[in-house]
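hiii so um. not sure if this is the right channel but i have a protein structure encoded as tokens and i wanna go backwards to a sequence. like what aa goes where. can anyone help
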């Protein structure tokens, strides 16, 4: 019997070592998954920030166009490219708030809607682990946010005359002949910003 106990001791040691290694490996995968989730959150925030900034710019330009341009209703279709002058700064600010850096910001059109694709990389790494080479790895992710028009109007409407907009049930009346840009509702009433992927 003593010989049997002596023979099983090495097996228990090996099993314990294997279980410990497996536990540490799962911990590393959990660290990587956490970093990946953090990266995706940062990418989502950056893309949304860029699109929201561009949406605000579109509404500002719409306010200038009403009463001065014959095609101001085109702005409500979402077909016009937003210049997005502040989009990059907005994206970087939100990425930084999530301890990440924007690696690229691209204006895109998805299903006919303008938007932005943000590619980010975390500033932090997976961290120390028992798997060589993983401690310095950073997570990357991308996200795309689009600007969707929310308002319908009579396609035969004369842009020189008063126009009624139905913005998902909220009625907005615009009279180009008696218009002040402050009369426009919040940008979120006219356009929705949503993650596309």
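sure thing!! here u go:
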């Amino acid at each position: 019997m003593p010989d049997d106990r002596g023979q099983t001791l090495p097996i228990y040691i090996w099993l314990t070592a294997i279980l410990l290694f497996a536990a540490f490996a799962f911990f590393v995968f959990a660290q990587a998954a956490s970093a990946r989730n953090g990266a995706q959150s940062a990418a989502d925030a950056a893309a949304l920030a860029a699109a929201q900034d561009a949406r605000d710019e579109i509404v500002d330009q719409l306010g200038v166009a009403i009463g001065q341009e014959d095609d101001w209703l085109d702005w409500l279709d979402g077909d016009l490219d937003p210049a997005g002058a502040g989009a990059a700064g907005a994206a970087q600010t939100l990425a930084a708030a999530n301890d990440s850096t924007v690696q690229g910001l691209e204006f895109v059109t998805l299903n006919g809607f303008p938007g932005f694709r943000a590619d980010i990389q975390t500033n932090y790494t997976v961290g120390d682990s028992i798997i060589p080479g993983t401690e310095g790895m950073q997570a990357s992710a991308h996200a795309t946010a689009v600007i969707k028009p929310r308002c319908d109007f009579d396609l035969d409407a004369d842009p020189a005359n008063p126009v009624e907009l139905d913005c998902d049930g909220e009625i907005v009346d615009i009279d180009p002949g008696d218009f002040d840009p402050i009369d426009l509702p919040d940008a979120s009433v006219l356009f929705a910003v949503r993650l596309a992927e």
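oh and Residues 2-195 form one domain.
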